[in-house]
Each structure stands twice: as structure tokens, then as C-alpha cells.
Amino acid sequence: MSWDQALTWSYVVGEYIIKIFAVGTVPENRRPASSSAWLLLILFLPVVGLPLFWLIGSPYVQGRRYRIQAQANHILAERSAHLPLVPEGVNPSQALTGLLRQNRQLTGMPCVDGRVRAVHDDAVSTYLAMAAAVDAATQYVSVEFYIMSWDDTTDPFFTALKNAVGRGVRVRLLMDHLGSRKYPHWNIFQKRLTLAGIEWHLMMPIKPLQGRWRRPDLRNHRKLLVVDGDVAFIGSHNLIDPHYGSETNARVGRAWHDLSLEVTGEVVASVEAVFATDWFIETGELVQARRPVQDPVDHGENALQIVPSGPGFPTEPNLRLFVSLIHMATRRVAITSPYFVPDESLLAAITTAVYRGVTVELFVGEQADQFLVGHAQRSYYRALLEAGVHIHLYPAPAVLHAKYLTVDDEVGVIGSSNMDFRSFALTYEVMLLGFGGDLVKRLQANDDLYRSVSRELTLEEWLQEPWRRRYVDNVCRLTAALM
């Protein structure tokens, strides 16, 4: 046998060994859609697919971060063990009671009292409200956002942080490394934070020359602010101008539209527990939280529960939360998500709800800001429309970036999590569930606003889509499942 023949046989045998190995290995503890996507890539392009699978394809996340999160969950469960399942005077339905128990079992977070002080949508007014809260700080401020940029719009907030440090307030700040570094003036921004006396650290840093390496597909996507343990902000806003530092976006009127809550009461301690865990993971320092004081102004008492999720939570609490809520519905479900790429369980829950007679509305952007996710999202429209889901397209060039849902008139959820594969498993997220007060009505009022400016996509219109675009949609759907 010649060398050429030997190399050819070696390549063929090696390729089949890879394929046989992949068929029995890739599906382990993985969604069927994800397994199919990875197997297609490995079987068709083994030289590319196998190395990529070993780099980012594992469904398991172990190591230091996983261990710390597990320990934090255990500590939270122990310290809140004396608390009842729901606050006194609250009477949730049997289904909702089971969901609250599930959330607590998976995350250690109790359901406690809280008040919604305000719902913030406009970016400018949101940052001004955050700045006002910081201006009132006397002890500490905790800041954690996926994207940050010190620009003209966010200047009031960062100036408030700087002034707080000048008053002797301790300011801790966390921002995702890859999430923030791609925006203008990144190096200057870091220097300004340091000169302001702010204690800042990168989340999930990727600095191989400094021995700091993380899987690049794992990110911290949370967005939260805590002031003195008394006031917290949580939602979808990043700390950046709504045009995201792009002159082109500003010129064509393309801005990100978000929704965040300002809350007080016992729930602030839960928000702070999320920050304290992330701060310890990045710095090794324990944060001592204060017990929140009661807000003297009654804004409508809610029962609130924080639901964190991410690579440190292999049970995917946010996905289970969404699926359980939709299965609970008896009359109406309204979902707002900028990136809607559901897995099999979520898609089945939504379509099943419609078949049961539940009215399901989905609010998404008419034009997505990300090519792959946008086309993957479109690939689900036909199944949704055929089932009877009402799809409302928020008009371009705006980017609808709010992330929340309501079920009947009973419960609402809002936070940082998208309804896609990344948010279910690869990014750290945090959601807030509320019922028994005014949260649901506030979110439904925002639905009315979105509905008034959106247009409803019909099945007849969708069936006119050219096959070329549908082909791209389906290819991107497979790509979205690669995890």
C-alpha cells in the first residue's frame, strides 16, 4: 500500500471514528434540536465541527464558578428557611403556589414582600431615576450591567456614582467584559471609573495573556442596581445611550426600547444576593447586605420572587419558569421578547395554550438587530401563526428590547432573560416574578402601548414570504441550536 493510500484510509477511518463517537456522545443531556444541529455540523464538517464542539459545545459547566453558585444557593436556602412559602396575607392559586415552590427549590430565593415604586421605559428618564437613587445613598451602591458606556446619556448616572464616592459611599461595579468592550471609548471608560474612585471589575473576563480565560460563549447578561439595600432597579436596560454608540443608528432613528422596574421592600435583599454572589465570584470578597427599610409610601404591595439563572444553574430555572407560567394560563398570555427562539418545551407550551382557548400575544421587533437570531426567530412564525398566536411587530427602525410576560391577570415576570437558547443555558440572567399587587396591571398597560404602535402579522402575509428568506431562516434556526 502506498503512502497516499495509507493517508486516505487513515483519514476515512478517522472520520468514521469521529462520527460514531459523536452519535453516541453529543445527545447526552442535550435538547433534541441542539443534538441534531451539532451532529449535522460534525457529520458534514468533522474537521470544523469536532473542535468547535469541544470548545463551546459541552452542556456541562463545572469548575470554580459552578461550585460557588451551588454553595451560594445552599446558603440562601438555609438563611431563608424560616420564611414561609408566600408572605402573610397573600393567597396564590394552587398552580402558582407550586411554581413558587419550584423557583425556591431551584434557586434558594424566597417569595417576599415588595413594592413597585416605578416602571421605567425611556432611557434618559431611567438613568436620571437611577442617578437620583444614587444621590440619596449614604452607605453603598452595587451596580451590575451587561453593557456599560460613559456617554452623554449615561453621564448623569456615572457622575452620581462619582459624587457618591466623594461623600464616602462605597461603589462596587460589575460589567461583562465582552459585552462592554466593543463600544466606543472603552479604554477611556475604564480610566474614568478608576479616577472616580469606583471599585470596578469585569465579569467573565477573557484575558489569556493574564491567565484569565473563559468560554467566550458564556456571558453575564444581568442588569441590576442596588442602593443602600433599600432600593433596587431590575429589567432590560443596559447602561448606554439607546442608539448604542452608533452615529448611524442615531441618524436613522434606530434606538433600543427597554423596560425596567424600581422596587423597594424585602425583595431588594434578594436582588442584592444575586449581586453579592457575582461580586464574590469575580473578587473573592464577601458583601455584607443591609436589611431593607420599609417604604413609607404605599405604592401597591406585591409578592415578589427573584429567579436567577445561568451556567451555574444546570436546571435552567428561567426556562422552567416560562414554561410553567404558560401552562398555568387559563385566559391570556402576553410575551415580549427581543430574541424569541424557543426550545421544544416552550414552543409546545405556547401552542398548547392556544389550543386550550388561551389568547396568546407575542410582541417582537419588526426588524431584529442580530442577523442569526433574527432569522432563527422568524423560522418559528409559521408554527405560531397556524396555532393562532397573535404576533405583534414593533415598528422598525426601533429595536424592541424589553423582556417580560404576563399570565391572565394574576402574575407577571420581568428582567434580563430573552426567550432563546443562550439565555436558557449560556448567559447569567435574573428575572423578577410578581403577583398580588399592581405589577401585572403596570405591565399590561405597557402591552397596550406596544399594541397601539405595532402591526399584527397574519398567516396569509407570512405565507407570501419568498422561499429564499425561509431557507435562510431555517439555516439560522439550526445555528441558534448549537449549544
Automatic annotation (TrEMBL):
Provide the transmembrane region boundaries: 6-26, 38-57
Domain (PLD phosphodiesterase) ranges: 216-243, 396-423
Listed A to Z, the keywords are: Cell membrane, Membrane, Transmembrane, Transmembrane helix
Q: Which SMART domains match?
A: PLDc
Matching entries from SUPFAM superfamilies are given as: Phospholipase D/nuclease
The listed locations are: Cell membrane
Q: What is this protein called?
A: Phospholipase D-like domain-containing protein
In which organism is this protein found? Kineosporia mesophila
